Amino acid sequence: MIQTETAVETAAVTPSPAKRDFAQLWQNYGTFGVLVILLVLSSALSPQYFLTTDNLLQVLLQSSVMVLLACGVFFTILIAGIDLSVGSMLALTGMVTAQLMMAGCPFWLAILLGGVLLGGLLGAVNGLLVNLTGLHPFIITLGTVAIYRGVTLIISNAASVFGFDPRFGDIIAGRVVGVPVPVLIALVVAGVLWFVTKYTRLGRNIYALGGNAQAAYFSGINVKLHTLVVFVISGICAGIAGVITVARTSAAEPNAGVGFETFAIASAIIGGTSFFGGRGKIPGVVVGGLIIGVINNILNLLNVQSYYQQIVMGALIIAAVTVDKFFGKKNAR
Amino acid sequence: MVALVAVKGITKRFPGTVALQDVSFDIRAGEVHVLLGENGAGKSTLMKILSGIYQPTSGQITLGDTTYEQLTPNLSKAYGIRLIYQELSVVDYLSIEENLFIGNLPTCKKWGLNVVDRVTIRKKAQEAMRRVGLKRHPAMLVGDLSISEKQQVEIAKALASDARVIIMDEPTSSLTDEEVAHLFKVIQELKAQGIGLVYISHKLKEIPIVGDRVSVLKDGRYVGTYDARTTSTDKLVAAMVGREITHSRPDPTREAGASTVFAVDKVSSKDGRVRDVSFQLRQGEILGFAGLIGSGRSELMETIFGARERNGGDITLNGKVINPDSPYAAIKAGLALVTEDRRHTGFFHNFSIAENISILPMLKTAHRQLSLERIDFAEEKQFGDDYKARLRIRCSSPAQNITELSGGNQQKAIIAKWLAAKSDLFIFDEPTRGIDVGAKSEIYQILRELADAGKGIIVVSSELPELLSVCDRIAVYRNGSIAEVFNNADATEENIMHVATA
């Protein structure tokens, strides 16, 4: 009986050479290839507008918040979980940052406390609830997405907050050598997280946990501690995205980030992250975020109604995962 | 007496192995025919052939007076053969009566529609429940019943669908003594009603109480059929384990070192699965743990390894009390646990061979969990190359994904990760499960080399020949504690089985 099973499994992991080559290619360059094709296509469709420095920077700027959220969500998917609460965390951290500044707190301190620290705390609450209840993160964050949004609406009386220190917006939403600061922030955060996942023991342990939580436990990895850290990372990413959102619009909106989790998850999935955990890379997630940004941008340039954009987005998610299912090398990181 | 079911000369081959070879067996009306054999002797295969799930490679099956080459599940069912698995298959969210008729609900015409005939169901359910002595309301949810009552529901379900032959697979494995006594009474009732029963069990002491005849299978072969009441337990055990192949024993001149490497002193687990266990392991010694499946050996090892909450007692490694409260603490202290289920608790399917090996030394040498220390990729490659050569892991490269390896080579990679972490005490839980014969002997050799290098080795195994050929001493485990410890020279499969099944 056992021998038959082994035989079946061996057959399953040894596809034909052609399929294997494509799988390898898709695994390594698939998402990037899709982005390149999109860029070429967009340039052809809208030659006079798309390929301008201003427009390309605009794409990057608009993608930066999504890339930040996606990097956080990526970690939670990597451990075979999910974080649906990133949009609500973005709103709550942005709102608290703005209110701290209104209360006279220096803007840099407000960013640290209201953005980064609070983001980390909200993420820690998600992680602790997952650890304590043993429920799937989908359930926990489905709850906190509403809770965090509710708190945001209560502390703001459902009203926008604006009129804070102008230096805040000037710096966070400004430009350094022509590049928007949010783009730089997203790049730095993604770079740090990429380094952590690829080069550090913590990163390796998170992949191990995502691949096989039981084996990770018996190999001495503290599963709960790593789960907590993963959600804290997601919270901090959302907190930074919250600060950027407030800076860009010069106001904290209680309804900021509604539905953003969909795009963040989509970025991670399109970027090749496996929903079953243990597989995916930060560069892929960044490219996934950019793909969504480019599609939105080109559809805008072509004056396509935003409703169609949603259809394109949805189709893309299904297509990306389908290709992954049939050609993805299930055993590679 | 007429046989209800008779199989003659059944052989069943699977790719690479012969599960049954020329087995004959029959079941008469109103008798309990016990089927005895070790794990893997072919009992389940034979029962699956009777229920039409497997088709035999050759042989004949006679149901009443019709002879078939092979059965289908429908044919088997139509004749009245019912299999009651060890894992009960009742539906907790349905009532007793609904469970009895599930998939076969009687209907009646009402307002021109076919609706469930509640009246007939209730009447038939009460009748079936009376026959098994289940005194509950038929509308009660099965989820609210005890295990033994659920088992009665299963039996009643077989009766309600006109069973002629009921096969019970290890029916007493999760019952209390009292519940077992009740089950035996039900079995007597069924016999009186002319039902033929096949009773599969490891528990030798039940055989004279419940059985009429007993047939023994060994390594897929039919050994013999005996009178269940008069045949001695000794004779049955000998029939069960007597092997043609003689197995080697460890070199008797090998002296274990004088010093104690590892000691477990009065250790219990909080959930009560491990009760007051003590043993010692001397340097260079391999200690085996024998016992029936479910006797709690894995639970003991998990407790030692900090994966199951300990309730008192001390665990000492190289003279130092370590008492790990987590696998992490156990690993830091020098313990290694090669778990019994490679796929679920052993390897990382998303990692290469080298990555699977390096994960442990990386964690053990890190100063803490959540370490941001860099991964040493050169060292990782070194680990992969070294252990590929040392443990003869057959792969094209250590960078290959681990799922591409055979079971035996996966196991070697898992052993390699514990070696790379410089562990001092190795616990192997079923180290050769699902591994082919060649790789098995390689694993045994690795165990011996580790012991000779001064590591403490504990081997848990359900294969007695394995324990006898590898271990210097064998502890027989029963019901959450050590029942007896044999020196290899005094140990035989027979006396180990005697203690394990007592």
TrEMBL record, chain A:
<keyword id="KW-0813">Transport</keyword>
<protein>
    <submittedName>
        <fullName>D-allose transport system permease protein AlsC</fullName>
    </submittedName>
</protein>
<keyword id="KW-0812">Transmembrane</keyword>
<feature type="transmembrane region" description="Helical">
    <location>
        <begin position="63"/>
        <end position="86"/>
    </location>
</feature>
<keyword id="KW-1133">Transmembrane helix</keyword>
<feature type="transmembrane region" description="Helical">
    <location>
        <begin position="107"/>
        <end position="132"/>
    </location>
</feature>
<dbReference type="GO" id="GO:0022857">
    <property type="term" value="F:transmembrane transporter activity"/>
</dbReference>
<keyword id="KW-0472">Membrane</keyword>
<dbReference type="Pfam" id="PF02653">
    <property type="entry name" value="BPD_transp_2"/>
</dbReference>
<feature type="transmembrane region" description="Helical">
    <location>
        <begin position="258"/>
        <end position="276"/>
    </location>
</feature>
<dbReference type="InterPro" id="IPR001851">
    <property type="entry name" value="ABC_transp_permease"/>
</dbReference>
<feature type="transmembrane region" description="Helical">
    <location>
        <begin position="225"/>
        <end position="246"/>
    </location>
</feature>
<dbReference type="GO" id="GO:0005886">
    <property type="term" value="C:plasma membrane"/>
</dbReference>
<feature type="transmembrane region" description="Helical">
    <location>
        <begin position="138"/>
        <end position="164"/>
    </location>
</feature>
<feature type="transmembrane region" description="Helical">
    <location>
        <begin position="282"/>
        <end position="299"/>
    </location>
</feature>
<keyword id="KW-0997">Cell inner membrane</keyword>
<feature type="transmembrane region" description="Helical">
    <location>
        <begin position="176"/>
        <end position="196"/>
    </location>
</feature>
<keyword id="KW-1003">Cell membrane</keyword>
<feature type="transmembrane region" description="Helical">
    <location>
        <begin position="29"/>
        <end position="51"/>
    </location>
</feature>
Automatic annotation (TrEMBL), chain B:
<keyword id="KW-0472">Membrane</keyword>
<feature type="domain" description="ABC transporter">
    <location>
        <begin position="259"/>
        <end position="498"/>
    </location>
</feature>
<keyword id="KW-0762">Sugar transport</keyword>
<dbReference type="GO" id="GO:0005524">
    <property type="term" value="F:ATP binding"/>
</dbReference>
<keyword id="KW-0813">Transport</keyword>
<keyword id="KW-1278">Translocase</keyword>
<keyword id="KW-0547">Nucleotide-binding</keyword>
<dbReference type="InterPro" id="IPR003593">
    <property type="entry name" value="AAA+_ATPase"/>
</dbReference>
<dbReference type="InterPro" id="IPR003439">
    <property type="entry name" value="ABC_transporter-like_ATP-bd"/>
</dbReference>
<keyword id="KW-1003">Cell membrane</keyword>
<dbReference type="InterPro" id="IPR050107">
    <property type="entry name" value="ABC_carbohydrate_import_ATPase"/>
</dbReference>
<dbReference type="InterPro" id="IPR017871">
    <property type="entry name" value="ABC_transporter-like_CS"/>
</dbReference>
<keyword id="KW-0378">Hydrolase</keyword>
<dbReference type="GO" id="GO:0016887">
    <property type="term" value="F:ATP hydrolysis activity"/>
</dbReference>
<protein>
    <submittedName>
        <fullName>Galactose/methyl galactoside import ATP-binding protein MglA</fullName>
        <ecNumber>3.6.3.17</ecNumber>
    </submittedName>
</protein>
<feature type="domain" description="ABC transporter">
    <location>
        <begin position="5"/>
        <end position="244"/>
    </location>
</feature>
<dbReference type="InterPro" id="IPR027417">
    <property type="entry name" value="P-loop_NTPase"/>
</dbReference>
<keyword id="KW-0067">ATP-binding</keyword>
<keyword id="KW-0677">Repeat</keyword>
<dbReference type="GO" id="GO:0005886">
    <property type="term" value="C:plasma membrane"/>
</dbReference>
<dbReference type="Pfam" id="PF00005">
    <property type="entry name" value="ABC_tran"/>
</dbReference>
